[in-house]
Amino acid sequence: MTFDLGSVRIGIVLALLTLVYGFGLGGAFGAFEDNIKGTLEASATAVKDTVYHGDEAAMKKITGKSWTYMKRAHLHANGLGTAALAIIFVLAGTRASSRVRGVISAALGLGAFGYASFWMFAALTAPALGSTHDAKEALGWLAIPSAGLLILGLVATLALFARDQFMDRKAI
Question: CA-to-CA distance for 39 and 29, rounded, in angstroms?
Answer without folding.
Answer: 13
